[in-house]
Each structure stands twice: as structure tokens, then as C-alpha cells.
Design goal:
The chain is mainly α and about 270 residues long. The protein is built from six helices and five strands. It has a three-stranded antiparallel beta sheet. A two-stranded parallel sheet has the order 4-5. Helix 3 (about 50-110) packs across helix 4 and helix 4 (about 150-165) packs parallel to helix 5.
Length: about 270
């Protein structure tokens, strides 16, 4: 204790005065000081290259931290820009899909099923999608429309009802569906036909072309519906004019024979 400098003794006295209740063992503190100095002295034996490597890594870590902070700031700035642009079009898109969903759900209600259209969002805009959920049986929940879960007829029914839900929202001059009623249950086919007539014959509706090899009997039609029946085959009756000459425009069988003759000559 006698070897302590006046400055150390002064600090010790100040500590004792600040902590009068605590018992301070000055001898133990002195032993700890000596041990610490000895430990510091032993570091002189450390390889200088190791110390240099440590210092270099500390500098690299500090530089990387600055880079991370700068890039985080840039990221936040770009995210704010994206959010600003997103706020301009997302409400309109959401409202549009809600209108489609209302029409789609109502169409499914009319055939005693359930359907829903919703927007699937993700942090990655490439993964955004319009999801269609359907339920054809009362004992099952709404399920996502896929190529495996529903039958071909159920998928066809969903497709045509979805297309008709877009009528009046999507400004297109016409729509064409090919054999949409194939594989469809008779009850659903009749319901879809009635829905198709109701939607497509409205004043503000565009043209719909339905191509199909067959239709159910006793369907409901509208005065704005035009039906074109195309007859073709080898066994059509011949059509002749007043002089008995075959009318090539009306006799498809004769046209086929003429075509085959031309093909053989070529």
C-alpha cells in the first residue's frame, strides 16, 4: 500500500467516501490490479501479425456496417417509392376484382353452388394472382380451382361463369368460347345456358360466340340470339336447281367430290 501513488490513494479515498456502507478490501483490490498489469504485460508476447490481422478485420467490419446502413437507407427509400406507386393502382384493382367477385358469387348462387374471386398478394409482384374458389357440394368448403381438384365439367362451368362475370367490366367487342359445355352435367349445362342468355343479351353486352357440337333440347333463347347450324358430311342430300343441275354451293357432298378430283390431278 505504501507504494501507491498519491493519485491512486486519492481515488481510493474518494471511492470509500462515496460508498461508506460497503466494506472495501484495499488489499484485494491491489492484488487484482497487479494481476491485471501482469496480464497486460503478457500480451507483449502476441504475434504482431495477429494483432494486425485483428485490426484489419475490425476496419473491414466497420466498413461493412457503414455499407449495410447505407443500403438499408436506400432500401427504405425505394420501398417508400414502391408503396407510393402501389397506393395509386391497388385500390382500383381491388375494387374491380370485388365487382367481379359480386357477379361471380351471384351466378354461383343461382345454380345453388358457391364461388369467390379474390386477389392473392405477395411481396414478390410476380406471384400476384387472381384466385378462383368454388364449392359444388354442400358438405365441402370453398376450394381453389385447379386442374386436379375439380372435374372437367366443373372447371368448364367455372370458366364460363367467370367469363360472364367480366361482361360489362372488360371492354371487348366479342368473346368466343369453344365447346365449353362438353363434359358438363345436364343440370349445370342448362343453368349455364340460361345465364349466358341473360348476360349476353343485355343492351350493353358485347357479342358472344358459342361453338358447340350439341345443345340440350328445350333451351331458353332470346330474340337477339342467332343460331347457325353447319351441316357437313358424305351423306347430305343433293341440292339441285330448277334445271336439275347440282348446286355446288348447297351440295357439300358434291363439293367434296370435286375437291378430291382436284387433289388427285394436283
Amino acid at each position: 500500500m505504501d507504494n501507491l501513488s498519491p493519485a491512486v490513494i486519492e481515488r481510493q479515498q474518494a471511492y470509500i467516501e462515496e460508498h461508506p456502507v460497503e466494506s472495501v478490501d484495499l488489499d484485494a483490490l491491489e492484488e487484482q490490479r497487479v494481476a491485471t498489469q501482469a496480464e497486460l504485460a503478457s500480451t507483449g508476447q502476441v504475434n504482431r501479425a495477429v494483432i494486425q490481422q485483428y485490426e484489419d478485420r475490425q476496419k473491414k467490419i466497420a466498413a461493412l456496417r457503414e455499407t449495410i446502413a447505407r443500403r438499408e437507407h436506400e432500401k427504405e427509400k425505394e420501398e417508400r417509392k414502391v408503396q407510393t406507386i402501389k397506393d395509386q393502382w391497388l385500390p382500383e384493382l381491388t375494387a374491380l376484382i370485388e365487382q367481379v367477385n359480386i357477379r361471380f358469387s351471384a351466378a354461383f348462387d343461382r345454380i345453388r353452388c358457391a364461388g369467390e374471386v379474390r386477389l392473392a398478394q405477395d411481396d414478390d409482384f410476380n406471384k400476384w394472382a387472381i384466385e378462383i374458389l368454388v364449392k359444388f357440394r354442400s358438405n365441402e368448403p370453398l376450394q381453389l380451382l385447379t386442374g386436379q381438384r375439380q372435374s372437367g365439367g366443373e372447371r368448364s362451368l367455372t370458366t364460363i361463369l367467370y367469363l360472364m362475370s367480366l361482361t360489362g367490366l372488360a371492354k371487348t367487342p366479342f368473346a368466343l368460347v369453344d365447346e365449353i359445355n362438353q363434359g358438363m352435367d345436364v343440370k349445370y349445362e342448362r343453368a349455364v345456358h340460361n345465364e349466358l342468355i341473360q348476360v349476353t343479351c343485355a343492351e350493353d353486352s358485347g357479342q358472344y360466340f358459342l361453338i358447340t357440337p350439341k345443345l340440350l333440347p328445350n333451351l331458353t333463347y332470346h330474340e337477339r340470339v342467332t343460331t347457325l347450324v353447319i351441316n357437313n358430311g358424305d351423306y347430305l342430300p343433293e341440292t339441285r336447281d330448277e334445271k336439275g343441275k347440282v348446286n355446288n354451293y348447297g351440295d357439300l357432298s358434291a363439293n367434296l367430290v370435286a375437291y378430291r378430283r382436284t387433289a388427285r390431278k394436283a
